[in-house]
Specification:
mainly alpha; DNA polymerase, domain 1; 3-stranded antiparallel sheet; elongated; DNA integration; Tyrosine_recombinase_XerCD; Integrase_catalytic; Integrase; DNA-binding
Length: about 325
């Protein structure tokens, strides 16, 4: 039965899911419960992959130390967390602990283990005021966009995709998942629909520049009537034509790298950089943090604040005051 569940999970895209020997040793019920946690409880694909890796590493560590599942105590989890803390960043360690804690909660509810050994373990303290995402300057952003050849279909597509990231503060995962129908009219204005983390549907009016870029792309691609089709489509080799398949997140990242190089952008940027650039530009122009939070579909204004880089220039100006 366990083997069938694993194969079913892998057939659903969970290729990395494998039941640890430590779990298998507790019988069919424990193995089934382990698989159910990742398939039924953790819905976000990126979080699921991260939690699978975290659980695999932790249980491999337990096996190396001869610990059966039911013998794992808080001291063991704390020792593991302390050890990986010497090699990995605080956010990664906190994610590992969260994965272990949630998994054991699920096993306790399923009566596989009597208690959660990770429940009382505290993770490392970690506090940041500015996110790590590198952001292009206003001049670099303009240079990159100006360097895109918009006489080509691929150029129109790339400009529209970057515009979606910039003007809606969207995550690249939500952008590449968009269908043509996710760009739609409401009265005289056009809106975009994004499917963000946690299966949340987020709608926002299209900025007039984004609307112009999307209209130009849709007209050139002749896909406006294919409402169920993917909006941002992959290219067919070097033909300059599009396929019916959507761009992947990796495709979008590589595209931005090419465009950054062509535009002479020195800052090392990626897809998420445009989210930071958009939020910062909005706040620089008098926008309110709480409105930026709503536009970015953030659960907390603290998260939105991480993308606000207005203070960086102030800091640089102050540093330049140091003269001998």
């Amino acid at each position: 039965m366990t083997g069938e569940l694993v194969q079913l999970a892998k057939g659903s895209g969970l290729a990395e899911l494998a039941v640890p020997l430590l779990i298998m040793a507790e019988g069919e019920r424990a193995a089934s419960r382990y698989i159910e946690f990742f398939t039924a409880q953790v819905r976000n694909p990126n979080t699921r992959s991260a939690y699978i890796r975290a659980a695999s590493v932790f249980f491999a560590w337990c096996e190396q130390h001869g610990l059966p599942l039911t013998a794992i105590q808080p001291v063991h989890v704390a020792t593991y967390i302390e050890q990986i803390g010497r090699e990995r960043s605080a956010p990664t360690v906190k994610q590992h602990l969260a994965a272990i804690r949630m998994l054991f909660d699920w096993l306790v509810i399923g009566q596989v283990v009597p208690h959660n050994p990770a429940g009382a373990v505290r993770g490392p303290k970690h506090s940041i005021s500015t996110g790590k995402t590198h952001m292009p300057s206003r001049e670099e952003a303009r240079s990159l966009l100006a360097a895109i050849d918009t006489t080509s279909l691929i150029g129109l597509r790339d400009r529209a995709l970057i515009g979606m990231l910039l003007y809606t503060f969207a995550r690249v995962s939500a952008t590449t998942a968009m269908r043509v129908s996710d760009y739609y009219p409401v009265g005289k204005r056009w809106w975009v629909r994004l499917h963000e983390k946690g299966d949340k549907e987020h709608t926002i009016p299209a900025h007039h520049t984004l609307q112009n870029w999307l209209d130009a792309y849709l007209e050139a691609a002749a896909i406006a009537e294919d409402r169920k089709g993917l909006l941002f489509r992959s290219a067919a080799g070097r033909t300059g034509q599009l396929t019916a398949n959507g761009m992947s997140q990796a495709d979008a990242y590589r595209m931005i790298q090419r465009r950054a190089e062509a535009g002479g952008v020195a800052t090392r940027i990626g897809c998420h950089s445009w989210r930071a650039r958009g939020i910062t530009a909005y706040l620089e122009n008098g926008g309110l943090l709480e409105h930026a939070q709503q536009m970015a579909a953030h659960a907390s204004a603290r998260t939105t604040k991480l993308y606000d880089r207005r203070g960086q220039q102030i800091t640089l100006d102050e540093v330049e005051r140091i003269t001998l």
